[in-house]
Amino acid sequence: MDQSSRAERKTKRRKTNRILNTAIAVVVLLIIIVGFTIFAGGNNDEEQAVQEETQQEQSAGVSDEESDEPAEEPAEEPEQTEEPAADEESDEPAEEETKDEETVVSEGTEPNVEQDIVNPGWESVGTSQSGEHTNSFEMDSTDWQEKEQALAYATGIPLSDMTVWYISGNGPQAAIGTVSPKSNQNEAYRVHIEWVDGEGWKPTKVQKLKENDKGR
Prior knowledge:
This is DUF1510 domain-containing protein. By secondary structure, the protein is an alpha+beta fold. It contains 3 helices and 6 strands.
C-alpha cells in the first residue's frame, strides 16, 4: 500500500511539474509576443512619423518653388526705373553746358585787357536805396557799398578777400571798378556795372587785365 501510494504521489508531482513548466513556457511566450508587438508598433510609428515629415518637406518645397516662380516676373520693372535715372544723369551735363554757353569769353580788344567776359545771366545785386538814385563815390555811402557787392558778384571774389583799387563813374547811372583778390594782387579785373532802378547795381562786363593797373 505504501509503495503504491508513493508511486501515485510521484506521478502526480510529475504531472504538476509538467503543467507548471507548460504554464511558464506559455507565459514567457506571451511576454515575448507582447514585447515584439510593442517594439514593432513603435518602429511603425517612427516610420510613419518620418514619412509624414518627408511628405511635409516635399509639399513645402513645392510651395516654395511655386511662390518663387512669380517673383521672377517683376524683374522687368528695374529696367523701367533705371531708364529715367539715365535720363537724369544725361540732363545734368546738358544743364552745365547751357550755363557755360551763357558766359561769353572773348579776347580783349583794349590795351592791357587779356579777356572780355560777358554773362547775360547776371542780375542786379539788390538795393536798400529808395527814391531818385544818386551815383555816389563816397566810401562810407550805401551806394559805394552796393557797388562793391556788384564787383564781388561779377568776379566771384568774396568781399572779405577783395581789394578795391578804384571805382569811377561811367556816366550818370554807371561805373567802372578795378579789383583783385587779396591773396593774389597781380590778378586784376576791371568790372563795368550799371544802375537798375529799384533793383540795384548790375554787372555788364568783366575785363581780365594782363597787369594790375590799379585803376590808372
